[in-house]
Amino acid sequence: MNLLWFVLWLLSSGALFLSSVFVPPAILWGAGMITAGVVLGAKAIKKGKRFNKIAGFPGHVQRAQTIKKGKRSCQQIPCLIKDSIGSSLSGSLLLCGLICSAHAAAFPLVYFFGARYHQIPFLQPLLRPLLKIIGLQITLSDGLLFVKSVNNVLKVSITLEKLGFFPFLLYLFGGLTLLFMTGQRRGRIGKFFLILSGYCAFRFIILFLISIEFNTPVIFWSSMITSLSFLPFPFLLAEFLPIAPCLLSEDISTAPIFSPPNPRHPALTDFPSLTTSLPLTNTLPLTASPHLINSTPLTTSPSLVGGVGGGGNSPINSPSSSLINSPPLMKGPRGGKNKRGGTEKNSAPFEQNLSRLIRPNFPLNRQSLKFGSIVFACFLFFVLAIGFYDPGIKKQGRILIDEFHSNWERTDEEFNTRLFGKKTDYNFYCLSKYLTNFYSVKKNYQPLDDHTLAGADILILKTPTQEYADKEVAAILDFVARGGGLFLIGDHTNVFGMSTYLNKIAERFNLRFRYDVTYDLPTYNLSLYRKPKIFPHPAVGQVPVFLFGSSCTLSAPLRAASVITGYGLRSHYLDYAQKNFFPAAEEDFDYEFGLFVQSAAVTYQKGRILAFTDSTCFSNFFMFIPGKPELLLGSIEWLNRQNRFGRLNLIFFLLGAGCLFYLLAVWRPKREHLLGILLTAGLAAVVAGILVVHLVNQKNYKSPKAKKDFPRMVMESEHSSFFLPVTRLAAPSDKSFLTFFVWSQRLGYVPCLAPSLELALTRGKIFVLIDPVKKFAHNEISAIKNYLFHGGAVLLMDNPQNRQSKSNGILSAFDMSIDYQNIVKGVVFDTHSTPVGEIDRACKIEGGHSLLVDPEGNSVLSVQKYGAGMIAVFTASHLFLDKSMGYTNAVPNEYQHWLSEIEFWMLGSLAKKKFLPFSLHLSRR
Fold first, then answer.
1. How far apart are CA 666 and CA 427, in angstroms?
2. What pLDDT is stored for residue 679 in this prediction?
C-alpha cells in the first residue's frame, strides 16, 4: 500500500502543473499526472484486496468459494473480476478526488499568505554558518547573504517561495487527507509533518547550492524541477511511514471474526444461489479464539446454509455455522505488524476503509441530520466570511481628482487632433473625460482641506510628484472616516518619488507601495492578469482580462481585500542609478517571485480605500484596451459606497468558528458516517455559499449606467484580422492597429474592442471591420443591414495581400465589391480632382460613390448609403498599421500626419453620414 505515497506525489505534481502561481499551466502534464495518480491508486487498492478474507467481506469470499466448486460457477468469474476492478477504480477516484479537493483548499492559503509574505530574514543568520561549513564564501550584511561565486558576488535572500511553501502546503493537505482516509492513527500525523518539514529544509539547501553553482534561481520556480525534487519524498515515506492494511497479529484471542450476515447486504444478494458455508480449514483454527466457539448462532434460512446443488442443510449450531454467524473481524488492541517488523497500533482494516470510500454513508436519523446541519452552517459561514463584500450605501458619485500635487499624467492636457507627443500620450485626459459620462468630476488645484473635500464622495490621488502636508493628510483621514472613498494610484520603482508621497497617506491604513517593478516571471515581459472565477472582488468583477504595464507591488495587512493578486511575477527592486529607476537589464539573482498584491482594498470607519499600482494602464494610449475601463469603473463603483455591514464578515467567521468548535467538542461520529456527512453537507454548503455571494455581488455591484450618450467606435475581432495589445505587447510580425485605435480618441470617440459581431453592432456608433478573414453568415449580414438601416456606420478596410478576404461576402448585399486583381498605385485624387497623396498599393472598388480615385478613375475609397446609415470601404488598410502611422507617443512626420488626417476624415465623416472632399477637410483644419 506504499504505492499510495506515489499517488500523492503524482497528484501534487499535477496540481503544480495546473496552477499558475509561478508559470502558465501545463494542462497536458497536469492532467496526465492526475490520471496516472488515479490509475496507480486503483492498483494500490486492488493490491490490498489480498486481505479480503481477513477483513471479512463475505461477498468476495463466497464468490471465490463458489468458483472453486466447479464448472457451473465459472460463469461468475467475469462478474468477480468486474466487481474487483470497479471497486478499485471507484475507490481510487474518490480517494484522488478528496486529495485534489484538499489541494484546492490549500490554494486560498497560498494566495493569501504567499502574496503578502516573501522574505524570511531570521533564517539567513541561521543559514550562514551551515553554508560556511559546506565551503561557500558567504557574508551576511544588512539582512542579506552575499555569496562569492566563480564570476561575481551574488546577493541572496531566503523567501517562502525558495523554501517551497506552495508544494509544502500541497503535500501537507494531501498527505493528511490520505492518512485520514486510510485510517491511520493520529500519531502518524505529527510524524508526517516532521518528515515533510525536514525534507523541505534539506531540499532547499540542495537547490540553493545548485542555484549558486549555475547562477540562476530558475530551479526554484520551474514546475518540472519542483516536481522532480519531491520524487524521493514518497520513497522516504514508504520507508519511515508506510501505509499498510491491517494484518493479523499473533495474538487474536480477543478479536471476533465475522459479523452476522445481513440478508439484504449487496454482497449476498448479488449471488442468491450461493449457500455454501466457509470451510473451517480455510480460515482459522477453532482454538484461536473463544469467540469462535461461544458466538451466538443465528436462525438462518436454508438458502444461506444449504449446499450449492440444493443439498442437505448444515446444523445451525455447527462450528461452520457459528463461524459464519460470529461477530466481525475487528482490530485488536495491537493491530498488526508492518513491513519492517514493527507493530501498527490501532490501524483500521484497509478494506473497511475502502468500503467507506466507495459508499460514504449519511444515515437519515435525527442525530446525523442535526450534525449535518451544523456542518452545513459551519462551511456556509466560512464561505460567506471569505467571499461576502459589503454592498454599502451608495453615494452620489462626486469625484475630485487632485492635480495640485502631481505634474505627471495630468487630466487637463487635451488629447486632440493638433497636439502630439509623449506628454499628450502619457496623461489621464481620456480617463477624466470618460468618467464624466457616469459621474460628476471636478479637479483640484489647491491644498487639500476639509473645505475642498466637503463636496466630494471620491478622492483620486494619482502619481503625486510633491509631498502632502500633515494638515492635508489629517483632512484626508477625516474625509475617509466620514464615508469618503480614496483611490490611490501609484507606479513602479518610486519614480518621481510618488510611492514615498503616497505612502505618507497609505501607511495610515497599513498599506504601502513598495519600491519595485514587476515582470512576467518566465519571459520578463508584461504580466497578464485574469480574475478568479470564485470570489472576485467587485472592483474586478467585470474585468475580462488585464495586461499590466510596469507595476510596483503592495504591502497589505491581513484584513485587506486583495483586489488583484498577481501571479507568475518577478519583483525587482529599484536602481536609482538607472533611468526612471528601472533596475539594470542583466539578470538579478536576488529577485522575489511568485504571488504579489497589485491592488488592495481596506475599510476605515465609514469609508473605503483602494490602492492600485500601475498608473500607466490608465494613460491615454492604454485606457480603452479591454480590461482598463472595466477596472476603472469597478474601482469607482466600489469606492462610491459608505460601509453598512462593516463587521459582518467577522461575524460570519466567528459563527463558523463556533460551529467548528462545537463539532470538535461534541461530535463523535462513526468513521463510516463522517465522510458521508462531510461530503453531503459540506459540499452543499460550499456550493450554496458561492452561489449566494455571486448573486449578492452581482446585484449590488453592477456596471454604472451612463448619464449621457457618448460616441463609440467599435473594432470587431471575430471576423477581422488585426492585433491590439490585449494580452501582450505587439511583436514585429503582428498587424498592430493600436495607433489607429487610440487616434479615434482624439476625435472624442471611446474606442472599444468587441469579441463578436453581435456585441459590436450593439455597442458602437461606428463599426470597423479590418481585413475580414471569416465568412459572414446570412443572419450576420442581415444584422449589419438592420444596423445600417437604423442609422449605423460601417468602415470596412481591406488590402491586396489579404488572400483569405471575405469582404465581398458582405459587400454584395450593398451592390459593392472589391476587385483584388486590379491593383491601384500612385497618386489619388478627391472628388474635387485635387491630389491628396500617394498610395503604394490598393484594390479597385466596384460600386458605391467614389471618394478617392487614381488618374484612371479606379476607386480606393467608396461609400454607399443604406437606409439612415452608411458603409465606407477603403482598400489600403495596411497604411494604418503602427509601422506606418508611428507609435502613439511619437510626433508624426509629414507622411504620418497625412495618414492621421485620412483617419480623422473617414471617421468624422462617417459619424455625420456626410463626406466633404478631403482637400476641403484639410482647409478647414
1. 62
2. 83
DSSP 364-407: -SHHHHHHHHHHHHHHHHHHHHHH-----EE---EEEEE-TT--
- List the beta bridge partners of residue 592: 571
Q: pTM of this prediction?
A: 0.84
> Which of these, 874, 864, 867, lies nearest to 785 by C-alpha position?
867
Residue pair 411/431 in contact by the 8 Å Cβ criterion: yes
- 3-state class percentages of the chain: helix first, strand second, coil last, to nearest 5: 45, 15, 35
Rounded CA-CA distance 256/225 in Å is 50
pLDDT of residue 152: 73
* pLDDT tens for each residue of 344-395: 444 444 545 554 454 566 677 788 888 889 999 999 999 999 999 999 999 9
Query: What gap in Å lies between CA 670 and CA 663, rounded to an integer?
Result: 13
| CA–CA–CA angle 292, 296, 301 (5° rounding) | 110
CA distances from 52 to 64, 285, 346, 388, 395 (A): 11, 18, 18, 49, 69
> Which residues, in sequence order, are CB contacts of 477 under 8 Å at separation 6+?
508, 604
Confidence of residue 327 (pLDDT cuts 50, 70, 90): very low
344-353, 466-475, 525-534, 541-550: segment of lowest average pLDDT: 344-353
Is the four-CA dihedral 363, 367, 371, 376 of positive or negative sign?
A: positive
Phi-psi region of 23 (alpha: psi -120 to 50; beta: other; left: phi over 0): beta
pLDDT of residue 285: 40
**What's the CA gap between 784 and 899, in Å, rounded?**
28
Least confident stretch, 217-221, 310-314, 476-480, 815-819: 310-314
| pLDDT tens per residue, range 599-623 | 999 999 999 999 999 999 999 999 9
Is there a contact between 575 and 155 (Cβ–Cβ < 8 Å)?
A: no
* First vs last C-alpha separation in the chain: 83
Asked if residue 290 has pLDDT above 80, the reply is no
Are the C-beta atoms of residues 118 and 514 closer than 8 Å to each other? no
User: Residue 148: which H helix or E strand, with range?
Assistant: strand 144-148
Whether the CB-CB separation of 798 and 771 falls below 8 Å is answered with yes
C-alpha cell at 920: 476641403
Pick from 564, 543, 531, 534: nearest CA to 694:
534
Give the three-class secondary structure for 202.
Answer: helix
Q: Point out which residues pair with 769 in neighbouring strands.
A: 796
Radius of gyration of the chain from Cα atoms?
36
The DSSP call for residue 886 is -
pLDDT at 208: 86
Location of C-alpha cell 505515497: 5
Cα angle at 301 between 298 and 303, to 5 degrees? Answer: 130
